[in-house]
Amino acid sequence: MLKLENVSAAYGQSQVLWDVNLEIADAEAVTLIGRNGVGKTTLLRTISGLHPVMGGGVRLNGEQVERTPAFARARSGLAYVPQGRGLFSQLSVHENLLMGLPALGGRGTVKREIPELVYDLFPICRDMAGRKAGNLSGGQQQQVAIGRALVTKPRYLLLDEPTEGIQPSIVQEIETALTRIRQELRVAVLLVEQYLDFAWAFADRYYVMQKGRLVETGLTAETPTGAVQRYLGV
């Protein structure tokens, strides 16, 4: 289980997260929604170790990791795909995938190679292996970015706005792939998303964030998107 207990975070003297309590069970899908600028990306960066915790605790697989560096959390099974994908634009698709392999360090007999399932889920990773990542479309880049995260063999996958700027047909492909990732790999997913139809089709539960605090939670199956739409409006 991934669990946050009263997590707070700040940029300098400006606090942006207040007492966040959140948990994700194994193979569960949870979506985090809210307006731009309320702290969603900061929360993902804090969970992944890219932003320091000011207060509270982060538990990963039962271990306290709030003071653990990002690379160690990655080696413990936490993968993060940032908004904007975070690919190395001048490197090839294959070279970008290889960047995920160091996260396998310390995992015993785990093979240091690109899993065949990555190519099965995202054929673009094989078909365009030699092409520079910066020359791909936004949807293609997103598939490569998720593929790179899967190379690390995660237990928990954090996704920040994976459908942003992507055409609907690719969004459907990504939803299908993420569903297989949960079912076949038993990977839990925390999804920050503005596209409610996508989030509700994929996630089991939701959290709403306002001004750095979680203000509502529930089951997507029991909550129509219209009931939470107000949290996304300007």
UniProtKB/TrEMBL annotation:
One of the GO BP terms on file: L-amino acid transport
Family note: Belongs to the ABC transporter superfamily.
Organism: Deinococcus ruber
Family annotation (PANTHER family): HIGH-AFFINITY BRANCHED-CHAIN AMINO ACID TRANSPORT ATP-BINDING PROTEIN, HIGH-AFFINITY BRANCHED-CHAIN AMINO ACID TRANSPORT ATP-BINDING PROTEIN LIVF
Domain ABC transporter: 2-232
UniProt cross-references to NCBIfam families, sorted A to Z: urea_trans_UrtE
Record keywords: Amino-acid transport, ATP-binding, Nucleotide-binding, Transport
Full protein name: ABC transporter ATP-binding protein
GO MF, any single term: ATP hydrolysis activity
Pfam families the record matches: ABC_tran
